[in-house]
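Entry 14. Ran structure prediction on the chain below.
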Amino acid sequence: MKILTTYIALLISFAVSAVAGNEWTYQSEEGEDATSTHYYFYESNGDSIQRVRWVWNGGAQNLPTVTEYLLGSGKIMIRHLVGKRDDVASLVTGGDAELELKQEYSITAKSTAEMLVPALPAKSLSDTQRIDLKNLIDLLAKERKPYKTKAQQDGGGQPATRPESK
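Output, structure tokens:
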């Protein structure tokens, strides 16, 4: 019953996030080489970051990948997804696309006794989970700029008020 309740809660959260769309407040990016770039999008309520999306454009030949971190009350949900090459333009500007879920898991972060604990029956974090947490820490520490819509990025939106925000 507990698993069913958790599953239903996840489905509702996916439905709500799909309807609500992306509410990015910050963004950052870094190039890897001539064709490969990583894009980072942050959703904040003004007090804290609730969601981080890391998009790798796939370089010249690979499918784009997305790692999402949902920072909720008492847990961190981590999703690894893959998109289609046709959706790269939307993904790298913070847009939505149909993504294939490759892996999803949560890590408990409730209290001192239950801090950074994997879901049962695992007793310790896997290498992948530790890498994901390290990546999340790095992303949260990264300097970021206010998010610009696609129109603003293309120069068709509101003019920037500060030279450094262009």
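The helical segments are 2-20, 88-91, 127-141, 150-153. Will compare against last week's run tomorrow.
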